[in-house]
Amino acid sequence: MTLASDPAVALAVPALGAVLIALAGRWPNLRETITLITAALLFAVVVALLPQVLAGERPAALLLTMLPGLALELRVEPLGMLFALVAAGLWIVNSIYSVGYMRANEEEHQTRFYVCFAVALASTMGIAFAGNLLTLFLFYEALTLSTYPLVTHHGTPEAKRAGRLYLGILIGTSIGLLLLGIVWTWWLAGTLEFKPGGILAGVADERVIGGLLALYMFGIGKAALMPLHRWLPAAMVAPTPVSALLHAVAVVKAGVFSVVKVIVYVFGVETIAGMKSVEWLPVVAGVTIVIASIIALRSDNLKRRLAYSTVSQLSYVVLAAALLTPLSVLGAALHIAAHAVSKITLFFAAGAIYTAAHKTEVSQLDGIGRRMPFTMTAFTIGALSLIGIPPLAGFVSKWYILAGAAASGQLAAVAVLVASTLLNAGYFLPIVYAAFFKPPREGDAGHGEAPMPMLLAMGVTALLTMFLFAFADQPLALASRLAAGE
Predict the structure, then answer these.
(1) Which domain, by its residues, includes 79?
(2) The pLDDT value given to residue 3
(3) pLDDT, tens only, 406-417
(4) Helix (H, G, I), strand (E, B), or coil: what is residue 84?
(5) What's the rounded Cα separation, in Å, for the pair 115 and 77?
(6) What's the number of domains the chain is made of?
(7) Cα–Cα–Cα angle for 145, 77, 385, nearest 5°?
(8) pTM
(9) How far is CA 30 from CA 44, 116, 203, 212, in A?
(10) By C-alpha distance, which of 53, 43, 59 is closest to 5?
(11) Using an 8 Å Cβ cutoff, are 297 and 267 in contact?
(12) What value, to the nearest 5°, has the Cα angle with vertex 435 and ends 430 and 439?
């Protein structure tokens, strides 16, 4: 096996980067250079795996054998490849943005910030390339622990409360529910491997399958299904680059990625299709989509509005996977990528507005597009993508989800998707209108755009949002292999 075909290298690069960043903490320029080089190297390592996966190969690596039949191992399949590409690519952009944001706002503990980011990306690669449920669980927990210092970065009482809620919900659900589901799966199937078609066919009756599905879906708290979503808006107390990490690059994407991977490779789409005991999942996802959208519509704080938008958009992925059709599963995979590039653009814009204008509320944004035209244009692109307007990435993923729902006769799911699209427009378009078409508020101080690194990162992600519509071949190829059960 060469380095180019070894997925373990994708874990080693950010882990080594974290050590070097810590050692360079006294020299900010060197520390940030190491961060950017590490992010670029990780992306190169991940891209090197892509041709093999598209050719039908499954690069693998054994990390550790714990017990006979229980090993920490990596194996790259199409869904993991797509997730790793998104996370590794956006880490580069987020690192550029972070340099501008952290310096402009004179944030403290910047070395710890960059170290935790690198460790979080190593954990994310472990989740993306996990070859079995045990490996997925351990890296899932590592991601929670490595992002906790980022959530509590400011050290204020509010940040500490948010951190306790963050750990309480994510660790509580994973230990109390997800781990129980994994142990139960091992007892039933005798294996924890991810296999095309699943591992539960013929080993459990329908009621057991329904109970197991509940343990997994609510045990994966990072997917933010209601009522286990409150950690996500609470974590908005963190600096904006952290919000971008939580909502676009790693944490929530690890949640919905794990949901799709478990449904496809543990339960098996064909195995559970038509079972009455799993019909509750589309209902829970649909309710989450609508309620979270309504809360976003009523929220004046910009980051809170974006947070509840994320709760809603995550359940698009869960709903699509729960529809159990090839088209909807394809749409679920695509929406992981589409939401990532769109939502990170929106959070970058929110951070730029805070940095340049010190505004945090939607009601304060009248006329801001005249002083920050680049920022608000990028915001508009991200917002239109999540509404589902072509030619942007969100249109492609929503189209496949809607097509899957219509093809399977799931009219309730179609209604939820249409209603949520209208709600998306209801909480995004008034921001765009106020920014460009309303006069500035009386007494607004003059200001310009945010620092150049922030604008550069925002411009790249806005372009990616358009790029994923125009050049969707590679994401579609990976998603199609997933939908075909490979």
Answers:
(1) 3-483
(2) 59
(3) 988 888 999 999
(4) helix
(5) 28
(6) 1
(7) 75
(8) 0.92
(9) 21, 17, 55, 48
(10) 59
(11) no
(12) 110
